Amino acid sequence: MNTSDTGWPLDIKTHSWVEDTENQVDFILQTLALTGKERILDLACGFGRHSLSLARRGFSVVGVDYTNVYIEDAVQSAQASGLTAEFVHADVLDVRYDSEFDVVLNLADGAIGYFQDDRDNLKLFDVIARALKPGGQHLMDVCNAEHAERFFPKRHWEIGTKRVSLPEFDWDPDRRRMLFTDWSIPFGEIAVRPETIEKDQDGVRLYTEAELAAILNERHMRVVRTFSNYYGKPATPGSSS
């Protein structure tokens, strides 16, 4: 993966987009018509924000992430709340679940497109398909390549309760990769101009809806519905996710 084991600090928990977690979980439950009896696999779960929310709602959840500090924090959070969610420190390509889960989630990219070798990126879809029980459901939250082609480069800003986030996006059309950098300003602190703001030149491989449909179809899966946000807005080529 294009990240080191210590490359994602826990201050990510204070970013604005984390504040939408409960709404996102509400959307997942409604969209997938979940009953509470399903077993759920959360791939690239980060510090477990979705997994922990699902566990609080009674689901059996397993979260997997490559970053050890995230898994340690998720385990501590689960123990502190008396939750039975399981968290596994592993590369998502190395897990070998076989027809064990009713639902597989890849949220906030969920490591889709994170690998430098496109063969590895496709292997992640194999992991997803293999982990699902027959008739199981998969939900992914990824950026849209068609949007990147039409609207990148662009800047975006978002205000949360703890900080303002100022990400910048660019597009490498030859490699089909989104290049991303983010600078955020915590509230209550004096903002200091950074000496440099460098984009991640490895980037994230993005896919069009048609590409994803073909990839999933090869693994005996099909796209049922697409959305542009967690409020049910239908996806269009101009939508960002």
Please explain how this structure is put together.
The chain is globular. The strands form 2 sheets. It has a 5-stranded parallel beta sheet. Strands 6, 7, 8, 9 and 10 form a 5-stranded antiparallel beta sheet that branches. By secondary structure, the chain is an alpha/beta fold. The chain has helices at residues 21-32, 49-56, 68-81, 118-131, 145-151, 209-217, and strands spanning 39-43, 60-65, 86-89, 101-106, 132-140, 154-155, 158-159, 163-172, 177-186, 204-205. α1 packs across α2.
Question: Which range does the strand content fall in?
Answer: 15-25%
- How confident is the prediction overall: mean pLDDT? 92
Name of the top-level CATH class of one domain: Alpha Beta
The stretches of 5 or more residues where confidence is low (pLDDT under 50) are 1-7
Shape: globular
Strand order of the largest sheet: 3-2-1-4-5
**Number of H- or I-type helical stretches:** 6
- Helicity level, as a percent range? 25-40%
**CATH level 4 superfamily of one domain:** Vaccinia Virus protein VP39
Indicate the CATH architecture of one domain.
Answer: 3-Layer(aba) Sandwich
Short characterization:
The protein has 241 residues and is of the alpha/beta class. The chain has helices spanning 21-32, 49-56, 68-81, 118-131, 145-151, 209-217, and strands at residues 39-43, 60-65, 86-89, 101-106, 132-140, 154-155, 158-159, 163-172, 177-186, 204-205.
